Amino acid sequence: MPLLNFTILTLLPIALIRRRPEASLATGNGQLLCFQRAVYESMGGHDAVKGRILEDVLLARKVKAAGYHMIFVDALNVVRCRMYRSFGEVWNGFSKNLYAFYNYALPFALLGLLLNLALFVAPHYWLYWQ
Known about the structure:
Layout: H1 2-11, H2 14-19, H3 37-42, H4 55-65, H5 87-101, H6 106-128
């Protein structure tokens, strides 16, 4: 999912994740989460987010909410993971996760969707029809 990294690294204020204390300025990628053991255990580990959609993001937010520092880095050259194998799997995965990512707030989810379409889809159509 190369576009996932591109989207996260271009639309989220990555530089603010480390500098600001707000839990809303936190994200995680479930394929590679690294914690100090004491921090992970103090938050309740994965049991604290068991059964929740976007447990990776919720864990990251718990880190910040507890006053710990975190960073989000691009580790594409370190690890690889194939999340989905078909368009249907991509659609199901992202349609489930996108609304949860915006904390089930419809205005933010729609704004995020429109922003993604404007930045990543519309330019291709515009260039094609020129």
